[in-house]
Amino acid sequence: MKKAKGAKGKKARSFRAVKKARSAQSNLVADDYTGESQALQSPVVSVIIPVMNERATIRRVIREAADVHPRTEVIVVANGSTDGSAEIARRAGARVFRYEKALGHDVGRSIGARAALGQVLLFVDGDMVISTAQLRHFVYAVLHRGVDAALNDYTGPVDKTDVHSVVLAKYTLNIVLERPELKGASFTAVPHAISRQGLSLIGAEALCVPPLAHARAIRLGLKVEAVHTVNVGKMNKRRPQRERRSPLEHLIVGDHLEAIHWLITQSNERGGFEDYRRCREFAL
């Protein structure tokens, strides 16, 4: 029992350390930054791609992303890459931000959003080649339908006994936000797009904790919709059965808890849900 408790404590400390580091890294000082390529003038769409050692896919990812609109800038945030991904991205026409160190999960989204010049910000990952035709659904929803946050309508597998904790966290957050129809759709999954207005209200710093950005968008009254389904589950790298639990699982669940904590601070200890005149004083 002591061994298990120690392991649990170590995991908790590790989780807190990652969260603290990730928060600090979203405000990196100039010394951490090693280069950027030239920006496109007056883009309509900014595609933001965090990259860490994605040389096998990054060229194709950029090629598909660059064609979503005639005036598209592609921003690659290469952090901790040692395989030449940044140079490949630069040659492919991307605007590249290079950081020698790994910045932590999703910090690249915040950095890319701060640098973006477009009216639509489209977020994709460097290891998932998603076709231009698929990506255009998200851009179209923001440009022509007035959507502020166009989400991937991918809910994750729920038709089995052991539902992944991240899937449960997404569903739970949407229920707490009183948007159960979104099911498991959220800022956590790519691709998704946000409007310039959405970015201004949510704040670029919140994007490094996607569930927090998701909660802010809904609570602040932005138009948030699941607009198109891209089955990113099939694109994720296959792991042996013993490794099916992602090392990021606890981090992402913690992100959802952070989002719920933020919601509570904006309302009350019940997140705005009724207590129905329960006379708790008589239970004391």
Automatic annotation (TrEMBL):
First-level EC class: transferase
EC number per UniProt: 2.4.1.266
Superkingdom classification of source: Bacteria
Cofactor entry: Mg(2+)
Keywords for the protein's UniProt record, in alphabetical order: Glycosyltransferase, Magnesium, Transferase
Annotated GO MF terms: glycosyltransferase activity
Start and end residues of each Glycosyltransferase 2-like domain: 46-150
Catalytic activity entry: (2R)-3-phosphoglycerate + UDP-alpha-D-glucose = (2R)-2-O-(alpha-D-glucopyranosyl)-3-phospho-glycerate + UDP + H(+); an NDP-alpha-D-glucose + (2R)-3-phosphoglycerate = (2R)-2-O-(alpha-D-glucopyranosyl)-3-phospho-glycerate + a ribonucleoside 5'-diphosphate + H(+)
Family to which this protein belongs: Belongs to the glycosyltransferase 2 family.
Protein name: Glucosyl-3-phosphoglycerate synthase
